Amino acid sequence: MKAYDFFSRVSVSRNRYAMKFFLAAAPLIIVAIGEAVLLWMAQAGFIKIPGAILSVICILLLVVAALTTLYIFKKLVNPLVIAIQAMDQYIENRTVPVLPGEYEDEAGQLLAAVQETITKLERLIIEKSDMIDLLSHDLRSPVGRILALSNLIKDENGAEKNLYADCIVNECTGLLSMLENILAILKEEQQEFRLEFVNLHELIEETVAFFQFSIAEKKLTMEVSIDESIYMPIQPQLFKQAIRNIIGNAIKFSPDGKKITIQAAQNEEQIELCVKDQGLGFKPSDMKKIFERFTTAGKKGTHGETSTGLGLYLSKKIIENHGGLLEAESEGVYKGASFKIILYRLIIKKPQEKTSNRQNAKTIMAVRHR
Known about the structure:
By secondary structure, this protein is of the alpha+beta class. Helices cover about 60% and strands about 10% of the residues.
């Protein structure tokens, strides 16, 4: 890239790839013109050099100039070679390259286009992979609960059987709704989220109701303290899955008879939603590990519930795609844990403000995704 970089610093060839080749060919052109003048002078008698010697000299100079020009031409083609190698390496090993992006000519634009294309493709592959993980993770829990309830029905009669049957209907309804939502998301052609205004209090109450069987089974106390005036522009299906993962984890890792607190606070800049439990907690040193994909910091719930190591990773990705943050805190093992969701400038105080704020929210999300 040294020859290409050198000619890129010359003002006349900075923005034109073809001009670089023209300048590289200048020595050959100069030699050819010089030889023509030399031969003319020899024929005119201005210089007295034997014809054979003069011919040999001219041929040698021409060969040297031609080889030098070809060598420089080969070096000038390096950006194209680098672009091809980057594509081949990504296809073979999914290695995302770091290509130079400071050049302004056509070759530089090609390098920038290859870099952008590979980066976008890698991001798309990761997002599709995350969607598959979301399906595998969120199908496991409801199917497991349905099986458990079905087994309980075999041993119960009367009111208890009807209660379990209602829970099965609720689980199946939620499962069907989740599948429809994910299919709708996969069909989305736009890269940006289609935001809708959702009442946070209603969203949390709906999520708590979804876990009513697990809450009752562990005799947990759910304390919800959220102002009913808080509305958030979110992608409902994805955000619900994130909330379900977080609240579901609080329930999974809470011993019988404990309390789970869900609170929200807002100001002009942001909204904070906090889910706090009195459960198993985690080591402060594992604070980052619990958000890793297929984390090794995962563990079974207090009733032996399994963990895929994906829930918090997916929740964090979803919330970050909303322009927010997901934070976790714990004083240590068996000392409970709290998970805080922070969304920036995505709040309104009254439902009637939806229309005027919807476009602002979309604008904010568009800016965050650029």
